[in-house]
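seq:
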Amino acid sequence: MNDRTRNDRREGSVVAADSFADALVHTAGEAVRSSNQIAHQTLDQLADRVDSARLQAAPVFDRLAHRADGMKYRGMAAMRDGSQRMRYQAVRATDSTLGYVRQKPVRSLLFAAALGAVATLLLSVVGRTGKPRD
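struct:
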């Protein structure tokens, strides 16, 4: 074989290797572009789903907030009504007690004294049970 044929073969091999390398680089570039495109599409779909879920959840949260406000106002109204009823009952009890004392002052005084004596006795018994005996 002569030198020229060997050189031609080497040059052909180099050209073929260069062509193969170029094709490989081109294929790799296409694969990267395709992967990027798929990744972008997937992220766009995910973002769309998140937006859709957020839009669907917003009315639910609004309804829950509205219900919580309603419950808060109903609770405040119930507390206000209850305190007004208690105030009214306290005024009625005071008035009836004053009426009883005006009608029967001696009996009221004796009842108050007896109640005071019982309360004092109970307090002294409770006070002794907490102390050790000597």
